[in-house]
């Protein structure tokens, strides 16, 4: 067994342990941390399989953004762990059957198709040597040549979603006390201050007190 196979089994073992702890951890924060560990090990396995783009994307998107958001939300919410674990054993048989079914399918696919997925075969088709092969470059060629229109459609959809999210967040409410800066710049002194002429008020005469009147 070479060092690459050793790293593969090491990362796979840590990945399985982290995935198991995600399900069995009592603390939601610990579950999220174990999920981040599972994603990091999956990215390492993808790097070993020479899928550099997928590994880096998993680290940047999930570990750098999504999981940090999940961790922030879980820490800010007051989650009742007892209510979440109330129906665990009731749904455990169905979850175990589905997990075994998915595991069997993955093992069958990897057992049959994994030995044929070599870099040399892909490099031979593209006319390149194995040392010059780049998975990211080949993926970029496919995205911007054969799948140009689907990529543009996906980009437009994501742009519309981003604009809609900003519009829904920044819409002005009626009860808001925000002031338009343009109105503040155009204001003049005579618009703010009005001088009104009033008649002079006569001085009040002091009334004698009761004690002075009695004397």
Overview of the structural elements:
- The chain is mainly α and 215 residues long.
- Among the domains are: 1-80, Four Helix Bundle (Hemerythrin (Met), subunit A); 88-117; 130-169.
- It is 72% helix and 0% strand.
- The protein is built from 11 helices and no strands.
- Helix 1 (3-24) runs antiparallel to helix 2 and helix 2 packs antiparallel against helix 3 (52-76).
- The longest helix is centred in the middle third of the chain and has 26 residues, at 88-113.
- It is elongated.
- It starts with a helix and ends with a helix.
- Residues 115-126 have low confidence and may be disordered.
List keywords for this structure.
single chain; 215 residues; mainly alpha; Four Helix Bundle (Hemerythrin (Met), subunit A); 0% strand; elongated
Which oligomerization state do the chains in this entry correspond to?
Answer: single chain
- Total of DSSP H or I helical runs spanning 4+ residues: 11
Percent helix, as a range, is over 70%
Give the amount of beta strand, in percent. under 5%
CATH H-level name of one domain... which superfamily? NADH-ubiquinone/plastoquinone oxidoreductase chain 6, subunit NuoJ
Instruction: Tell me how many strands there are.
Output: 0
Roughly what is the average pLDDT, rounded to an integer?
77
Short description:
The chain has 215 residues and is mostly helical. It is 72% helix and 0% strand.
What's the SSE blueprint?
Blueprint: H1 3-24, H2 28-48, H3 52-76, H4 81-84, H5 88-113, H6 119-126, H7 135-146, H8 148-169, H9 181-185, H10 189-192, H11 210-214
Helix pairs in contact: 1-2, 2-3, 7-8
């Amino acid at each position: 067994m070479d060092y690459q196979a050793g790293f593969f089994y090491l990362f796979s073992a840590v990945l399985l342990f982290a995935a198991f702890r995600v399900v069995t951890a009592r603390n939601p924060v610990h579950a999220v941390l174990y999920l981040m560990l599972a994603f990091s090990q999956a990215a390492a396995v993808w790097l070993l399989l020479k899928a550099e783009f997928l590994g880096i994307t998993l680290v940047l998107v999930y570990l750098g953004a999504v999981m940090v958001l999940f961790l922030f939300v879980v820490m800010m919410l007051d989650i009742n762990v007892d209510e979440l674990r109330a129906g665990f054993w009731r749904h455990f048989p169905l979850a175990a059957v589905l997990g075994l079914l998915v595991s069997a399918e993955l093992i069958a696919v990897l057992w049959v198709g994994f030995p044929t997925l070599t870099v040399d075969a892909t490099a031979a088709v593209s006319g390149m040597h194995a040392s010059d092969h780049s998975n990211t470059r080949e993926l970029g060629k496919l995205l911007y040549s054969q799948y140009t229109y689907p990529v543009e459609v996906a980009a437009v959809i994501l742009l519309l979603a981003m604009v809609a999210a900003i519009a829904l967040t920044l819409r002005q409410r009626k009860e808001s006390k925000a002031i338009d800066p343009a109105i503040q710049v155009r204001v003049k002194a005579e618009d703010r201050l009005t001088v009104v002429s009033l008649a002079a008020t006569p001085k009040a005469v002091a009334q004698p007190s009761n004690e002075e009147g009695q004397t």
